[in-house]
Every structure is written in structure tokens, then in C-alpha cells.
Amino acid sequence: MMTGDQVVQGLPWKWRAQGTIFLIGGLGFLFDAWDVTLNAFLIPLVAEEWGLSLAERGWVGTANLIGMAVGAFGWGAIADVVGRKKAFSLTLLMFSVFTVAGALSPDFVTFCVFRFLAGVGLGGCIPVDFALVGEFTPAKYRGRVLAAMDGFWPLGATLCGIVSAALLPFDNWRLLLLTMVLPGLLLFWVRRSVPESPMFLVLRGRQAEAKQVIDDLVTRTGAPKTEWRLPDPQTAPRLSPGTMFKQLKEIWRFDPRRTAALWLLFLAVFLLYYGAVTWLPSILKQQGLGTYAAFMVTTLTVAVGMVSALIAAWLVDVFGRKWVIGVSAPLAAVALVMFALQLNVETSAKVWITLYGLLIQIAIPALYAFAPELYPTELRASGFGWASTVSRVGAGLVPVLFGALLWPHLGLPLTFAVIGGVVVLAVVAMAVAIPETKLQPLRVSVPS
């Protein structure tokens, strides 16, 4: 007799069932992209108001990204203890409250503190949302669904760029922050109606709730009803700081080679992404472009990711997750180095930065589809969360290191080449240490 998690993973995929969860989860990812991309547009505006040095400007992005790093492992661990649904809603609520506070900041230090706290809230969206959507999605469609979910990232980044450019005549960076809050609060309210992950309920032995969610999924997808049973439940750990670090220990105990390679891969890919996007408006302004033009070129660079996500959604189920990441990420690094080398040739520079945007945003959806599949249910959100934390910490240091050390002393081409070398190293580690997960069922529990 099949278990409840096997029933869920064998269902057909329908828009009126799993598709609703996909859309609601994707909108949270949209806000994550909007907020991260907003750092690039805030840097020149905040610097002008408070007279910041190049090194000080980097703290605009660093405070926010480090907050997201804390939120990624914190909310990932919370979701594995109290459930996906509660964490699913509270991440956006925390983000909205501290974004309003950031918009009211009287000085730069206070502003950075509130950007950090808003990041803590929003940092949980990626691990929690991908864990929830992945656990509702049948194995046959999971790769393309999780990769397609990343299409909300360039959509959010593009909306950020369009809105930021449209609000430039008001010359008020505080308005840029406040534009995100109302839709964020509306999405928080919508998320309250999302059911708990059936795989989480199965794992915790919440039989009545699990049966209700699974039977509803079966009905809404039109699948034939069959007999199924609940596997033996596991004792839910109590939420505490100790629990979070115990989960970290379990993640490494589960497969240390896999975890080390995944962390390096996350770090390298997002160093490559954030290192370019966060500073792109400032780089372009230094080349003589006006603020509006710099904003729009950055917007187009991230907007191409909507095409990338569709390409990635197809590629991951045809060639597998590893091949897509292993080819697209190093090629993105090459394109970024070429952009830096030909920065003074306007047409060539635009071609290379567009190609970079296309390639890096093929690698990221494939990576996000890959990561949740590498851990069992009890470690899925926290495993993804800790990997995301590593990437956010590394990326969080990029704005300061880039502005204070790398760019001034090495120059742009060599700076991007060094990051590209880290990407190649990470891809080699992935090839050796991480198995392909294409069309493989999700693991429910850690072997005893």
C-alpha cells in the first residue's frame, strides 16, 4: 500500500490545485528579488543624501544581504519545526514592518539596521517557499515547476527597476521602499489560506490534517482515489536556537560531501550574481550614463531572466540539473569578464552584459530546483536555508569588499575573473560530490 507522500508525488499537476500554491509561493520570491535589486538603486540615491564614501555605500547592500543570510537559516529551521505554513506567512509580515521603519530612518546607521531586519524577514522566503512548493509538486513535474518558479525573480527585479526609474522625478529614495509594503501585506493575507505541506504533516503524524490535505489534492487533480497509509511519524523537535544548530549538524551528518559542494556552489553562483547586479548602476554612472539610463540598463539585464527561467525550466528535465548549472554558470562568468574588458565600447558592453544576465539566470533556477531535492523532508527547508545563508553571507560581503578593495585595486576585469575562478571550482565540486536528481522521488526521512 502506498504512503501519503507517495500519493502526493504521483498525482497529476493541475493549476487549480498545485498551481495555486506555485503562484502564491512565486509572488513571495518576487518580493525577495525586488528587495535585493532595490539595493542597487538605493546606493546612488542614499549616497547622495548622506554624502557616503564608496566603501560606506557598500553597507546598503551588505546590511540587507547579511540580514537575509540570518533569515535563510533561521526561517528554514523554523519551517522544519513548526511547519511551512506559519513560516510562509510570517516572513513577509516581518519584511513589511521593517521596510516601513527603514523608509522612516533619520540617519544612515538606523537605515542599515532596519534594512538588516527587513532582510531577516525576507530571507526566509526562498528556503520556505521552495520547500513548500516542492512538497506539493509531483516528482514528474518538480524540476520544471521549481525552475519556473525562479521566473518570479526577474519579474520582481524588473518591476523594481521600472518603478524605481518611474519614481526618480520625486527624488525620494524613501518612496522606493514604501512602494513594496502594501502588496507585501496583501500577499501576507493571501498566504494565510495556503494549506500546510502534506509531506510535513505526514512526517509529523498529524493524521487527520494530512488526510484532509491529501484527499483534497486527489479530488482537485481528478486523480483516482486509492487506499494509502501514513508512515510512522517522527517526534517534532521543539523550536530553539539549539534546535537550529542541531539541524545544521544533521545536515552535515546526512551527507558532508554533498553539503560542502552545495554550499560552495551557492556561494560562487551568488557572488557572481550579486557582485555584478548590486554595483551595475554605479559602474554605468561612472562611465558617464545618467541615473535614469543606468537604472534602465540594469533593469534590462535582470528582465532577460524571464526568458532564462523558461529556458531553465525546460533544460533541467531534459539534460538534468547538474549539466545546466555546470555549463551556464562558468559561461556567465566569461560574459561578465568580457563586459568589463569592453566597457568603453557601448554596443559590445551591452551585448555582453545581456548575455551575462541570460546565462546567470539560467543557472540560478536550476540551482533552486536542485537544492530542495538533495535533502529529506525533515531537513529540506533547513538544508536549503543553510545553503542560502552561505550564499547571502558571501554576497553580503561583496558590496563592501567590491567597493573598498576589489574594484579600486584590481579593476573590474580581474575582479570578475577571480569570482569566475571560484565558480569553476564549485562546478567541479558539484560534478564529483552531488548526485543528479532528475525525476528522482523526494526522500521523506533520514535513514536510521
Name the descriptors.
single chain, 448 residues, mainly alpha, Growth Hormone, Chain: A, two-stranded parallel sheet, 21 helices, 79% helix, 1% strand, globular, membrane, transmembrane, Sugar_transporter_CS
Mean pLDDT: 81
Say how many strands there are.
Answer: 2
Percent of sequence in beta strands: under 5%
Strand order of the largest sheet: 1-2
Radius of gyration: 21 Å
For the termini, the CA-CA separation is: 22 Å
- Proportion of helical residues: over 70%
**Biggest sheet, open or closed, and with what strands and sense?**
2 strands, parallel
What is the total number of structural domains? 1
Structural class: mainly alpha
**CATH fold-type name:** Growth Hormone, Chain: A
Can you name the CATH architecture?
A: Up-down Bundle
Parts with pLDDT < 50 across at least 5 consecutive residues: none
CATH class: Mainly Alpha
Shape: globular
So how many helices?
21
- H and E string: EHHHHHHHHHHHHEHHHHHHHHH
Superfamily (CATH H level) name: MFS general substrate transporter like domains
Compact overview of the structure:
This protein is mainly α and 448 residues long.
Question: What features would you describe in this structure?
Answer:
This protein has a single domain (2-433), classed as MFS general substrate transporter like domains (Growth Hormone, Chain: A), CATH 1.20.1250.20. Helix 2 (15-50) runs antiparallel to helix 3 (54-82), helix 13 (241-254) crosses helix 14 (256-277) and helix 18 (321-341) packs antiparallel against helix 19 (346-370). By secondary structure, it is mostly helical. It has helices at 4-10, 15-50, 54-82, 84-103, 108-122, 125-136, 139-149, 152-166, 173-178, 181-191, 198-204, 207-221, 241-254, 256-277, 280-286, 291-303, 305-318, 321-341, 346-370, 377-410, 412-433, and strands at 2-3, 228-229. The protein starts with a strand and ends in a 15-residue tail after the last helix. Strands 1-2 form a two-stranded parallel ribbon. It is a multi-pass membrane protein. This is MFS transporter.
